[in-house]
Specification:
Blueprint (H helix, E strand, L loop, with lengths): L1 E10 L6 H10 L12 E7 L3 E2 L6 E11 L7 H7 L4 E7 L5 H15 L4 E7 L11 H10 L3 E4 L8 H16 L1
Parallel strand pairs: 1-4, 1-5, 5-6, 6-7
Antiparallel strand pairs: 2-4, 3-4
Length: 177
């Protein structure tokens, strides 16, 4: 069985739930305690085998996940965190639609460093939105602008978190074989 190794980044503004998404995906846990990421935090997970896109052989994806702090100003150090990434999850907060503009700018910067990288857009905190109809269209437009899938996630409940990482892995495999 082939193992594909990928560096991926989590992009997004301050407090959109990037660290919680990583903790849910890697350790299957969620904490109500908010801890600000300083700089970058790196985690790793070997995903269960996925059916291969080409010959049908199962493929495992080993993800090196870079959880990058939601920084308002981008200095050369942050741009260096992006280098060599195969893909990114672009994370916004459904309860704060203003995070869409930040996400567009961060995603543009990421793609300027990694022009062939895969991108999947996440609208996080779907468990807190009773009426998502108002917030979702902005996220759909953002995802369409980047040619990206949109996934509504909840780090708290785990809803669609594994799906988001699987979609990103499949898109990376499609682009980079």
């Amino acid at each position: 069985m082939a193992i594909m190794k990928h560096k991926i980044c989590l992009l997004g503004a301050f407090a959109v739930g990037k660290t919680s998404l990583v903790q849910r995906f890697v350790n299957d846990r969620f904490s109500e305690k908010y801890l600000t990421t300083v700089g970058v935090s790196v985690s790793q997970k070997l995903m269960p085998p996925l059916q291969g896109l080409s010959a049908g052989d199962p493929v495992q994806h080993s993800l090196l996940i870079w959880d990058i702090a939601g920084l308002e100003k981008f200095d050369p150090v942050v741009m260096n965190y992006f280098r060599g990434a195969s893909g990114a999850l672009a994370v916004g907060d459904l309860t704060r639609p203003e995070t869409i503009d930040d996400l567009a700018a961060i995603s543009d910067r990421f793609l300027s460093v990694n022009s062939n990288a895969a991108l999947v857009t996440l609208a996080n905190k779907c468990d807190l939105m009773e009426n998502q109809a108002e917030a979702v269209p902005g996220f759909k437009k953002l995802a369409a602008n980047f040619g990206s899938e949109l996934v509504l996630t909840s780090a708290k409940t785990g809803e669609q978190v594994d799906t988001a990482f699987e979609l990103l892995s499949r898109e990376i495999e499609r682009r980079h074989g």
